[in-house]
Design brief:
The complex is a heterodimer of chains A (about 375) and B (about 375). Chain A is of the alpha/beta class and about 375 residues long. Chain A has nine helices and 17 strands. Chain A folds into three domains: about 180 residues, 3-Layer(aba) Sandwich (Rossmann fold); about 55 residues, SH3 type barrels (Roll); about 110 residues, Beta Barrel (Elongation Factor Tu (Ef-tu), domain 3). In chain A, helix 1 runs parallel beside helix 2 and helix 3 packs antiparallel against helix 4. The longest helix of chain A has 22 residues. Chain B is of the alpha/beta class and about 375 residues long. In chain B, about 40% of the residues lie in helices and about 15% in strands. Chain B has a seven-stranded mixed sheet with strand order 2-8-7-6-5-3-4, with helices on both faces. Classes of the chains: A alpha/beta (about 375), B alpha/beta (about 375). The interface between A and B is medium-sized, with 18 and 17 residues.
Chain lengths: ~375, ~375
């Protein structure tokens, strides 16, 4: 049986390939060329660059499997980078890894696997898949600190059925030990941190180059609308951000909301970041969801999930009510619902409901609409 | 593995290995020294020069400059002639030249040399009159390859040289014969050129060595500056063993040419005939114009070359796509774009190149493997 293994040049996918080989798969190693720098060439170092492609090639050679680099720059630009820019221009803070996994790795790459006669796609993600009564189940990784189920929530059951995440079953320490045992030079390679296509700089530099229209000068204001300072573009500020604001007001200030239309960034205190709930759109489910679920909701990559009641709200939406207020719930990021370790599904955070008196009018209005929707749903359930 | 990527590099011929062995075992002489060890190296070097000169019909062996390969020879020819005598001379080249010429022209353009790219027709042919019409009194050098490395189309180099000569006798004409020399008769008199590029590893010599034939009297600015070896045209201690290997390979290729043409043409034509029956929608590029006997450039509509190459590799057939980036990913080829192909068509092409180790039955074998590789791709 043939398997396509996506090799990024990192230690996880290298060991994933080794583990799949041990399981008896006939492997085809693939590295995706996903992006090029602004001058049309790939930098040598950094995530998904020339050095990474070489590392992947070396790992494949160590394992004695064929390895190819495929050009996915068009797919990546269309399905990941363009939506990323659009979202920022609309004042949202997207998570491009969700789109990349859904549309590139478990979209276009699965189509390639079909063309190449491969039954499954192996990646180095830290997550686990189990068979369930109604299809595959997606679970958090054995190594909770490396869990990536959050960015995989949107890949869908069909892709999940064909996905294999061998390293999701072991700890990162064990991954590195196995790489070292195999003599792979990536054994102690650091984990990648930044978004690959930002080329090591922050989103604001990237937006200035690629979405200049979304970067108009504007003001920082406090939650009552008083001007605190100016900035050169609202897009790219992230809710909860404290550093790099360039305004000093004597005590810590955080970005609490971003309005790219008015080019206004609202700064507030830490308690202004607290949200009692949010609405979620574009929900995709992996596990069945008949009605409201009391579980936990993760609103950001690598953060703790918070206890919440999640209620379906028609049109592929959710209303999320947190048991205790949650900090920096950010429109554009994914909200993923877990029951224990299992991913139920997820979608994109749309509106955020504040929990405190200082909340702006917009937020109170959203909060109102949430309670109305939630109310109508409980009435339906009651009937 | 059925190896049909000889245009990328071809196995070293036994004659090459035999010729090189003494210099690998005990070839430490620097030809520039004043002792017996150096003299032995020097005489091997000059013997190699004579053999290469004779193979292409050069008047004097010293017209042959040994280089580090075809790319360096192209750089020396184009940049050397454009910048010769302290000039910023103009460069005229065809749109399907190898990157070694196109990128050198780009570099010269950035230095202020006037640079003109001459378009090709849909078969990849360069029109001699268009080349001549692109020249003006600033033009220092014209570069048109003897045969294209991707599609194998043979260019009318003699006609181009004559047309340029008629326009202005002071313009130097260069031709890259890296792909052609193994199968086409290459005589500098017949071609009427002033410079000719030769590569070792494309005809059964070692990689990392090449030659540029330069007509006596031509002024070239060196690309590599240093100790003034190779008549001041290419500094650096000559690599005696590879140079001896290159000379042996050139000689062997010329001696083997008639057999090569017969066997390779049988293999290539057998391949294309079998394909016509087995994959009737496959299209042979430039099938109606003169092509190198070893080249078969095929488009299978609807099948990405990237996928086909992977499946061919799995079936034990080594072939190539037109163009790869530094990371190894397949890219749409500039040559096909110059021939007016759209990106999609350009990404559906695979190049099969036969070579001196191919036997006439390899064509039918390759066609059968291609059919298996296509299974599942559409």
């Amino acid at each position: 049986m043939k398997a396509l293994v996506a090799m990024s040049g990192g230690v996880d996918s290298s060991v994933a390939a080794a583990m799949a080989l041990d399981e008896g798969w006939d492997l085809v190693g693939i590295t995706l060329k996903q992006w090029v720098g602004d001058d049309g060439s790939l930098p040598i170092t950094g995530c998904c660059t020339l050095a990474d492609a070489e590392d992947a090639r070396r790992a494949a050679a160590t394992l004695g499997i064929p390895h190819y680099v495929l050009d996915f720059t068009e797919e990546f630009a269309e399905r990941v980078v363009d939506p990323f820019l659009d979202a920022y221009a609309g004042g949202l803070t997207p998570n491009p890894c969700v789109a990349c996994n859904r549309d590139v790795r478990f979209g276009a790459l699965v189509d390639r696997a079909d063309a190449l006669g491969c039954d499954v796609v192996v990646t180095g993600h830290h997550a686990r898949v189990r068979d369930g009564d109604s299809g595959p189940r997606l679970l958090r990784a054995t190594d909770r600190s490396k869990d990536q189920s959050y960015v995989l929530h949107a890949i869908g059951s069909d892709a999940l059925r064909r996905a294999r995440f061998p390293v999701g079953e072991i700890t990162k320490g064990e991954v590195r030990r196995r790489a070292a045992d195999l003599g792979m030079r990536v054994a102690d390679k650091p984990d990648s941190q930044d978004l690959c296509f930002l080329g090591g700089s922050g989103p604001r530099d990237f937006l200035k180059t690629h979405a200049p229209d979304a970067m108009r000068p504007g003001n920082f204001v406090d939650v009552d609308g008083a001007v605190l300072g100016s900035h050169d573009g609202a897009a790219g500020f992230t809710i909860g951000q404290r550093r790099g604001l360039g305004v000093a007001v004597g005590e810590p200030r955080y970005v609490v909301s971003v309005d790219t239309g008015e080019s206004t960034v609202v700064l507030g205190r830490r308690e202004d970041l607290l949200a009692s709930g949010c609405t979620v759109t574009g929900v995709g489910l992996i596990a069945p969801m008949e009605g409201p679920i009391e579980g936990s909701v993760q609103v950001r990559y690598r953060s703790e999930a918070a206890p919440a009641l999640v209620t379906p709200a028609g049109d592929g939406g959710w209303v999320v009510e947190f048991t205790d207020p949650v900090e920096a719930v950010t429109p554009g990021q994914a909200a993923v619902l877990y029951r224990g370790d299992e991913v139920i599904g997820g979608g994109t955070i749309d509106r955020v409901a504040g929990s405190i008196s200082r909340a702006t009018g917009t937020i109170s209005r959203v909060a109102g609409s949430i309670s109305r929707v939630a109310g109508s749903i409980s009435r339906v359930d009651g009937a | 593995m059925l190896y049909l990527d000889h245009a990328a590099t071809t196995p070293i011929r036994p004659e090459t290995r035999v010729a090189m062995e003494p210099f690998l075992a005990d070839g430490h002489g620097n030809p520039g020294g004043m002792h017996a060890v150096a003299r032995a190296a020097k005489s091997a070097l000059e013997d190699a020069r004579e053999r290469v000169a004779a193979a292409i019909g050069a008047r004097h062996p010293l017209e042959v400059v040994f280089t580090g390969g075809g790319t360096e020879s192209d750089n020396l020819a184009v940049a050397g002639a454009a910048l010769g005598a302290g000039r910023r001379g103009g460069v005229v080249f065809s749109a399907i030249e190898h990157e070694a010429v196109r990128e050198t022209a780009g570099f010269l353009g950035r230095l202020g040399c006037p640079v003109v790219e001459v378009p090709v027709d849909s078969d990849g042919l360069v029109d001699p009159d268009r080349v001549a019409a692109s020249c003006d009194r600033d033009t220092a050098v014209v570069s048109v390859m003897a045969a294209n490395n991707e599609v194998g189309v043979i260019q009318p180099v003699a006609e181009i040289a004559a047309a340029v000569r008629e326009m202005s006798p002071s313009i130097s004409v260069h031709s890259d014969a890296v792909q052609a020399l193994v199968s086409e008769p290459v005589s500098i008199d017949d071609l009427g050129v002033d410079m000719l590029t030769i590569s070792g590893h494309k005809l059964g010599g070692p990689p990392g060595v090449g030659a540029l034939w330069v007509r006596d009297g031509l002024v070239l600015e060196p690309v590599l500056h240093g100790g003034g070896q190779e008549g001041g045209r290419r500094s650096g201690t000559p690599a005696v063993a590879p140079i001896v290997g290159l000379a042996a390979a050139v000689e062997a290729a010329v001696a083997d040419r008639a057999r090569f043409r017969r066997d390779v043409a049988a293999a290539r034509d057998g391949f294309e005939q079998a394909l016509a029956g087995l994959v009737p929608d496959a299209i042979v590029t430039a099938s109606t114009v003169g092509r190198l006997v070893q080249h078969s450039h095929i488009r299978v509509p609807g099948v990405l070359a990237e996928n086909l190459l992977i499946n061919l590799d799995q079936q034990g057939l080594a072939a190539a796509a037109g163009s790869a980036c530094h990371s190894g990913a397949v890219q749409a080829s500039p040559v096909l774009r110059a021939m007016g192909w759209d990106d999609r068509a350009a990404r559906e092409c695979v190049r099969f190149t036969f070579g001196w180790t191919s036997d006439p039955g390899d064509g039918a074998r390759a066609a059968a493997r291609l059919v298996r590789a296509l299974d599942g791709l559409r």
